[in-house]
Specification:
Elements: E1 8-13, H1 21-34, E2 39-44, H2 46-49, H3 56-72, E3 81-84, H4 90-99, H5 104-108, H6 111-122, H7 134-149, E4 154-156, H8 162-179, E5 189-191, H9 223-231, H10 250-258, H11 261-273, H12 278-304, H13 310-336
Parallel strand pairs: 1-2, 2-3, 4-5
Length: 339
């Protein structure tokens, strides 16, 4: 009996900074779990990063760093497809075809564009579009091309990225309405991984761990730096011997994500009973993080070497991705009358 092909899952990763613990909990782990159920594809969205990054060396570094991070964290390139967006040029031909069926009003309502205009309004600027480039404005169309070109069934994203998948579905629907007599683009479905549903990791200051807040704990800093960052996690002045609420502790919330259930339960009990101070908790947190991250750091450093296997792995993934892309683009070209 022939097995039913698994659905295709597509994840885009924007290379705009050094990976941190929040990325591991909120994005990497959930996506890797989904790879157990789907034919998973991952792409480094280096062209998307051009909306903000203007340093070519930095973009090259971040692109390799993101790929190395995911592989070090457990992504198996023999089982899944990982590639650079820039190595699949079919993406950009499809993006133009899709832009011709995408309503400008839809783009006007995109979250990133509206947020940029709101920021200008708050700053009192008369021109609400000041400083906004067309890359940011057209971002949803390029994202739709990324998704639709791979014939993806599902796209796992966080809630803040859900609109991109919804837009891809809307744009595919417009294309199918106009040109779908002979070929229809697959309508993607949004998947919200359970680990992302309302779960965020606190940063050093207690706010959501984010590069924009400069409050992150990077994944691959040296051991001495990791210890210093953990010691900087904000705590209150509750005495060592006083009972504490673990759920109100930023350090415990991080500890809970990386310790075993038994370890987390034991620490929770001691905090509630007043048998542990914040300093000891941070020491335990450092130990757990360092044990987890040391082998990941070694693999990451190995992949980031100039002559490592990383670029070959990405190139092989790009070939697999382009094989899928050529089929979709050929059908699109025929459908619109360019063949």
């Amino acid at each position: 009996m022939q097995e039913t092909p698994r659905k295709v899952s597509l994840t885009g990763i924007k290379p705009t900074g050094e990976p941190h613990l929040g990325n591991l909990v909120g994005a990497i782990r959930p996506a890797l779990e989904l790879a157990e159920r789907y034919d998973a594809m991952y792409f480094i969205a280096d062209y998307h990063a051009l909306t903000t990054i203007r340093d070519p060396e930095l973009l090259r570094h971040y692109s390799r760093s993101v790929a190395a991070t995911w592989i070090a964290a457990g992504l198996d390139t023999d089982r899944v497809t990982m590639y650079r967006q820039s190595e699949v040029p079919e993406t950009f031909e499809l993006a133009w075809a899709l832009s011709c069926v995408s309503a400008k009003g839809l783009m006007n309502r995109a979250h990133a564009y509206k947020a940029a205009r709101d920021k200008n309004a708050e700053a009192g600027k008369a021109d609400l579009d000041a400083g906004i480039n067309m890359g940011l404005y057209n971002y949803p169309v390029l994202m739709a091309a990324d998704i639709l070109l791979m014939d993806a069934d599902v796209v796992p994203v966080g809630k803040d990225q859900a609109q991109h998948v919804e837009y891809a579905a809307d744009i595919a629907g417009s294309f199918n309405h106009l040109f779908g007599r002979g070929y229809k683009l697959r309508i993607p479905e949004l998947v919200l991984p359970e680990a992302q549903a309302g779960k965020t990791l606190p940063g050093l200051d207690g706010r959501k761990m984010s590069k924009s807040y400069a409050n992150t704990i990077p994944l691959f800093v040296k051991e001495s730096r990791l210890k210093k960052l953990v010691r900087r996690i904000a705590t209150d002045s509750t005495p060592v011997e006083a009972p504490k609420d673990p759920d109100a502790s930023h350090a415990f919330q991080i500890f809970e994500q990386f310790a075993t259930e038994a370890e987390a339960a034991a620490v929770r009990k001691r905090l509630e009973a007043g048998g542990m101070g914040w300093g000891e908790l941070k020491d335990r947190l450092f130990e757990v993080l360092n044990e987890l991250l040391t082998p990941l750091r070694a693999r990451y450093d190995e992949l980031m070497e100039p002559d490592s296997e990383l670029d070959a792995l990405l190139a092989a993934g790009a070939e697999r991705a382009r094989a899928r892309a050529r089929v979709v683009l050929s059908n699109v070209r025929t459908a619109i009358g360019i063949d």
